[in-house]
Design goal:
This protein is of the alpha+beta class. The chain is about 40% helix and about 10% strand. Helix 4 crosses helix 5. The longest helix has 30 residues. InterPro entries: Ub_conjugating_enzyme (IPR050113), UBC (IPR000608), UBQ-conjugating_enzyme/RWD (IPR016135).
């Protein structure tokens, strides 16, 4: 035991250049594991109407689609990309950029990028998560904030002419719906694609999903009662 301890004490110190090489070699693995953990958190949050899928070519790019189910933007089907910095998680705030044209005070009309500085002035890896960014984007459509707009026209109309604002929003909703089945802008196999409903193609899958839901409901266990009807005394029910 003493001999082994002596050998450990006498172990030559690694140089800073060696440590740097080790970090460079293992950083991609740690990063990918971190992003996988983030994606698992997103799936557990079940954000309503929001779907994301990491790109097949890079875990730093996620494809997303947002189905707005209520509010001024109800009916909108907006495509976006979540762009994660190469130095994640030691990085600045990841970016969300809409492919769909979205008329909104917090979305740059020219680039489609969502303004994040107010919600995430500083990205802290031990505090912030990717699901928080996605939740923030979802909330932008449900609760419109015009305090620090990047689309000044949208902000002005929202404050001063709600009818005109609603008309512009309606235009982008209709545009998003009409372009849902367009040719994909990306050849990535994990890009989210949509096809027109085909009875022959989709009926079987639809019925299978309905059957699975009904099976889960029928097997739901709510627990056993050990109280005899008409009594408040616990364990008064005899087991059979």
């Amino acid at each position: 035991m003493l001999s082994m301890s002596a050998k450990m004490i006498e172990r030559p110190q690694q140089s800073s250049s060696q440590i740097s090489l080790y970090k460079q070699a293992y950083t991609p693995f740690f990063q990918e594991y971190s992003i996988m953990s983030e994606y698992n958190l997103v799936t557990k949050k079940c954000l309503p109407g929001l779907y994301v899928m990491p790109s097949a070519s890079s875990p730093l790019l996620w494809f997303g689609v947002l189905f707005i189910k209520k509010g001024l933007y109800q009916g909108g089907i907006f495509r976006f990309n979540l762009e994660i910095p190469e130095t994640f998680p030691d990085c600045t705030c990841p970016r969300v950029v809409f492919e769909s044209k979205v008329f909104h005070p917090s979305i740059d009309i020219a680039t489609g990028e969502v303004f994040m500085n107010q919600a995430f002035p500083e990205w802290k890896k031990d505090v912030n998560h990717l699901w928080q960014i996605l939740e923030h984007v979802l909330q932008l459509f449900l609760s419109i904030d015009v305090k620090d707009p990047v689309n000044q026209e949208a902000s002005n109309l929202y404050v001063n002419d709600m009818d005109a604002f609603a008309n512009r929003v309606k235009e982008c909703i209709e545009s998003s719906q009409n372009s849902l089945f367009d040719e994909p802008t990306s050849s990535d196999p994990y890009y989210l694609r949509f096809n027109q409903y085909d009875e022959k193609l989709h009926k079987t899958a639809r019925e299978a999903l309905k059957s699975e839901i009904e099976t889960k409901r029928s097997h739901h266990v709510s627990g056993l009662s050990w109280v005899r009807p008409g009594s408040l005394e616990p364990f008064s029910q005899t087991s059979s």
